[in-house]
Amino acid sequence: MAYQLMASLYDQFMEDAPYDQWVKYTKTIIDKFGLKTPNVLDLGCGTGEITVQLAEEYSITGVDYSADMLTVADQKASNHNQQIQLVHQDLRELEGLYHFDLAISYCDVINYMTTMEDVQKVFNNVYHSLNEHGLFVFDFHSVRHVEEDLVGNSFSDVKEDSAYIWTCYPGDEEGEMFHELTFFTSEGDLYTRFDEAHHQKTYSVEVYRRLLKNAGFEILAVHGDFSIETDFSEKESDRIFIIAQKRTR
């Protein structure tokens, strides 16, 4: 989960990621729940693609486990003449971040919490970071998507001066997967290879509901695949979104 050398190539291989949909979804939630000039916390912000777009309208702080990804995010913010607070922290040990109206965590960041204990730690930390009645919005892979579309498959992409091969292996438990990624980057007539390994685990909606309730959240809505108008389906949705609100314990 280091994202070290990968950070320099991440945006190149993620250029088709639905960042605009995540941004639109967030703005829709802000409008729907009447958040006025919200202070936003972006958990697992990566290279800051979503963070920078939201910073055009809102005060936002980005947090990520990878210092290399944050370096890229900082450069993007500078290119956009934005002052964005970027924090290098593990979400399981989040501290010193308080008084936020909205916390978001997208692109299956929560799936990197591979035990229920770790998920619970993150939810507890987010609870303490939010103002009273603050919102927490996150997404995760559905179990069906992991089992049917990801594990046991390989993916690849070739650019002008770089390429990657991504193989997804099943874990011992349902919803668990291990990613092995191999990257090649050109340096003149030579190519440099580097490898990364990632571990993810997803749970059913009911598990996330229970852990959120334990942390002090009330579930306001569950959506599938960026649709805020329709309910989710664990049998059909690839990516599931949960909107939760902080309540007094």
UniProtKB/TrEMBL annotation:
It comes from the Bacteria. SUPFAM superfamilies: S-adenosyl-L-methionine-dependent methyltransferases. Keywords: Methyltransferase, Transferase. InterPro entries: Methyltransf_25, SAM-dependent_MTases_sf. Residues 40-134 form the Methyltransferase domain. GO terms for molecular function: methyltransferase activity. The keyword Methyltransferase applies. GO terms for biological process: methylation. This is Class I SAM-dependent methyltransferase. It comes from Ornithinibacillus hominis.
